[in-house]
């Protein structure tokens, strides 16, 4: 028997000592065993990352990436600072602590969780796996396109289903598109960019029914902005054994967009499958420490939500005063139809130091405004009144 132990195996054994956390086999070996997948160029809408990069740094109001300007919390900041002194060490034990904290709160096992540096690597892992062999990914249109756009780059098929008349995901129409070639159905709830929320009972029934035919991926990036996230989450469908993946992130209400921490909850076999496309150990020691301190820090989350809602109500009042309609929001952004070309509107707002996003759908030009601090919303109002 070999007396050597590689780093990946030591991570795994150390994690078990920290509370039974399972890590997965070496990335290099896994990638070597995988068939080559070639990404091809894809014509698509601007991403939030690209919008921020193009905007530069001279902004009075950065309202284009759905960030939380009120976080991270003081407790998270202190934990991050305290973790620096030992950041020369691999954070094997602390990552196990974070896994177990989430597992305990959700009433699941550690092997139902896979964590990465934000949810983006996990969306990519799903895109790679579930698009194999030209499989199709079914989504709403418009909806968050990170997963399906990557699947299409990998020669998967992207089936887009228009939203309902009230700008919600059309579950019935999406289910009707499921066939033998469907690799995955992607549900973003609340939806991005429309900020609409699905009826919980209807979505749960959809997940239980459709997951018998194909994998259902529910992206709950914005669920913490709901009054009662636990009442709306689809984690319950995972707990009852359904073929459902639920994605969560610290990037929104927790204020960790720049710290990068996200995870999925799914059946253990699904977690093992997705882990084949991830490192399983990409979080920094400082991020882990901050996430442990921040997770379910109810007073901070309540305060950040109240501030977000206050800014949102102010935005509603501005739009109403200027004669604009809007889609009622269940997240930290608001979408409304424009009365001018979307690109021109965004450029003119940018000239005034306000960054926002534009979309085209339903034969209309739309603007999506992320919710910021009140001073940022006032900067939006000043610029918007000059153009409206």
UniProtKB/TrEMBL annotation:
Record's keyword terms, sorted: Aminotransferase, Pyridoxal phosphate, Transferase
Family according to the record: Belongs to the class-II pyridoxal-phosphate-dependent aminotransferase family. Histidinol-phosphate aminotransferase subfamily.
SUPFAM superfamilies, sorted: PLP-dependent transferases
Protein's recorded name: Histidinol-phosphate aminotransferase
InterPro entries for the chain: Aminotransferase_I/II_large, HistidinolP_aminotransfase, PyrdxlP-dep_Trfase, PyrdxlP-dep_Trfase_major, PyrdxlP-dep_Trfase_small, TAT_signal
A family per Pfam: Aminotran_1_2
Positions of the Aminotransferase class I/classII large domain: 63-383
GO molecular function, one term: pyridoxal phosphate binding
PROSITE patterns for the chain: TAT (PS51318)
Record-linked PANTHER family: HISTIDINOL-PHOSPHATE AMINOTRANSFERASE, HISTIDINOL-PHOSPHATE AMINOTRANSFERASE 2
């Amino acid at each position: 028997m070999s007396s050597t132990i590689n780093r990946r195996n030591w991570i795994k054994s150390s994690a078990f000592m920290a509370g039974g956390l399972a890590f997965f086999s070496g990335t290099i070996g896994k990638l070597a065993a995988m068939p080559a997948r070639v990404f091809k160029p894809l014509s698509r809408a601007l991403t939030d990352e690209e919008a921020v990069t193009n905007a530069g740094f001279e902004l009075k109001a950065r309202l284009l990436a759905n960030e939380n300007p009120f976080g991270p919390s003081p407790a998270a900041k202190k934990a991050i600072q305290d973790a620096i002194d030992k950041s020369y060490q691999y954070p094997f034990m602390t990552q196990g602590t974070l896994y177990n904290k989430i597992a305990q709160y959700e009433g699941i096992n550690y092997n139902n969780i896979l964590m990465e540096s934000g949810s983006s690597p996990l969306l990519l892992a799903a895109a790679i796996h579930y698009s194999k062999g030209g499989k199709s990914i079914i989504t709403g249109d418009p909806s968050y396109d990170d997963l399906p756009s990557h699947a299409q780059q990998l020669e998967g098929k992207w089936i887009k289903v228009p939203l309902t008349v009230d700008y919600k995901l059309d579950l019935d129409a999406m289910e009707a598109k499921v066939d033998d070639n469907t690799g995955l159905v992607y549900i973003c709830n609340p939806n991005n960019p429309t900020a609409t929320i699905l009826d919980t009972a209807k979505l749960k029934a959809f997940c239980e029914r459709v997951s018998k035919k194909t994998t259902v991926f529910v992206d709950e990036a914005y669920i913490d902005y709901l009054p009662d996230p636990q009442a709306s989450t689809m984690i319950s469908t995972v707990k009852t054994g359904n073929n459902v993946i639920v994605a969560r992130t610290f990037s929104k209400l927790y204020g960790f967009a720049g710290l990068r921490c996200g995870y999925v909850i799914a059946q253990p076999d699904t977690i093992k499958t997705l882990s084949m496309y991830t490192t399983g150990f990409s979080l920094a020691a400082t991020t882990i420490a901050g996430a442990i301190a921040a997770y379910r820090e109810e007073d901070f989350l309540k305060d950040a939500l109240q501030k977000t809602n206050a800014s949102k109500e102010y935005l509603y009042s501005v739009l109403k005063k200027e004669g604009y309609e809007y889609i009622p929001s269940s997240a930290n952004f608001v979408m409304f139809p424009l009365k001018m070309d979307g690109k021109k509107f965004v450029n003119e707002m940018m000239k005034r130091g306000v960054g926002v996003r534009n979309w085209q759908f339903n034969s209309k030009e739309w603007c999506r405004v992320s919710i910021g601090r009140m001073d940022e919303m006032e900067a939006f109002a000043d610029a918007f009144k000059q153009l409206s």
